[in-house]
Amino acid sequence: MKRKRKPVFDPKAFLAKADGGRTISKYQKDQTVFSQGEAADAVFYIQQGKIKITVVSEQGKEAVVAILGTGDFCGEGCLTGQPLRIATAAAMTECVIVRLEKAAIIRVIHEEPTFAEMFMSHLLTRTIRVEADLVDQLFNSSEKRLARALLLLANFGKEGKPEAVIAKISQETLAEMIGTTRSRVSSFMNKFRQLGFIDYNGKLEVHSSLLNVVLHDEPHINLKREQL
């Protein structure tokens, strides 16, 4: 007697349903998904839209640490025992977001290898991105950091076709992302536009030629061990 074959687990189909520790909500632009200091008890999956992750220091200074889009997870810190949120997530556009309770996502990671593989891939990609951001901050000029941020917002280097026209983003937010002033961002944006790397007139369009700014004189890290 043949055994019934277990249905193939589809992680995206799983994330598209509101059931068993999952809730799906729509967020308007600028609406908060979760706030710094709140209890960390769930992971969020972005089905549609873009969100920004910000951190506020004790002195009240705010920094944008990430811009996330469709297919990204956020709030994973709760899985490592993080009791409180260390950042705030807010919608940059209209969003559809799945909230996965901590117990629910732990269960599916243990039970479904396909989902675990997808989630692990996300975590590794995020780790690589954080390391690249750190190198960017340490070694690159603010002009090059802005070029890289714009390319990332347009999904250059990711799977699928880049989004030439990206969600409206203020120069203040761009300045917070790269650690410089709004006036410098304005100056660089005007320069990029004059060189034909971007177009913006109510909407921002990023061209692949902007890669030239990032690739020119890219920082080199010497990986050779020092001689003892």
What does this structure look like?
By secondary structure, the chain is an alpha+beta fold. Helix content is 35%, strand content 22%. The chain contains seven helices and eleven strands. It has helices at residues 11-15, 102-111, 113-139, 142-153, 171-178, 182-194, 211-215; strands spanning 22-27, 32-34, 42-48, 51-56, 62-68, 73-74, 88-91, 95-101, 165-166, 198-200, 204-206. It has a four-stranded antiparallel β-sheet. Helix 2 (102-111) crosses helix 3 and helix 4 (142-153) crosses helix 5 (171-178). It is globular. The N and C termini lie far apart (67 Å).
Summarize the structure.
This protein has 228 residues and is α+β, with helices and mostly antiparallel strands. It has seven helices and eleven strands.
Largest sheet: 4 strands, antiparallel
Q: SSE order in H/E notation? A: HEEEEEEEEHHHEHHEEH
Strand percentage? 15-25%
Enumerate the strands of the largest sheet in spatial order, edge to edge or round the barrel: 1-8-3-6
Tally of DSSP helical segments: 7
Helix content range: 25-40%
SS content category: alpha+beta
The number of distinct β-strands equals 11
Mean pLDDT reading: 85
Report how far apart the termini are: 67 Å
Instruction: Give the overall silhouette.
Output: globular
| Uncertain runs | none
| Rg on CA atoms, Å | 20 Å
Q: Main traits of this protein?
A:
four-stranded antiparallel β-sheet; 22% strand; 35% helix; single chain; alpha+beta; globular
